[in-house]
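Section 3.1: Structural characterization of target chains.
Under the original work plan, the team committed to producing a structural model for every single-chain target entering the pipeline before any wet-lab resources were allocated. The record below documents one such target. The sequence was received from the expression subgroup and is listed exactly as submitted; it comprises 257 residues.
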Amino acid sequence: MADDNLPEEGELVVATVQDVKNFGAFVSLDEYGGREGFIHIAEVASGWVKYIRDHIREGQKTVCKVIKVDPEKGHVDLSLKHVNEHQKREKIQMWKDEQRADRLLQIVLERVGLSKEDWLEKWGNVLVERYGTLYGVLEGATEEEEELFPEASKEKWLREFISIAKENIVPPKVSVEGCLILSASGKDGILKIKGALGEVKRFRNIYIAYVGAPHYRIVATGKDYKATEESIRKASDIVIKAITSNGGTGEFLKEKK
């Protein structure tokens, strides 16, 4: 009989190393109830591995890429060498966030006398699908009180959920930086530049600082990268339009990452 509780090929998974052999390592998959996975020595690191314990050891928590799944036998083959450091850090952070979210959810459910199984079946699975992860639901609860889950607006657990989210979760914040190159001739040139920069005072998420003529640093902050990027470009366009309409010149250069 095929086992449905398995990761998918290509998925990144958090694993704890249980037993290291000369030919590979056996691990337990933290997100799949401790299910066993195997990393062949050829998948431990790029190049020849002389001593496997130079790369992996018992008790170590790491991130692996699923390279093969056998649903009939329940076998999961993994790779370490196909996971870079950025992917590892990002996956571990996501896993930690989910662990924390689960602990906070347990506090909520204990307060209102609900079991996790009932909560998931009635409301939780829909919310997680909507927001991507349980931690994502908590982030949403800090900002979208009314829109979070209208179907459960009168439920006691929702009020507790929003309350505990606001107490424990800091909403995500991103920043986009760039440089405005502005110039204006004449004795009143600096006044023209100040006037152009003043056009973006209505943008609460925009910060502009003088770097050194003719350069001005512009920073936009927000919760979503694309929206924040759009905001900085819109603000820059307004400044440039204002300075050019007064006979000056303006250019925006986005900071390269």
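The chain has a mean pLDDT of 88.
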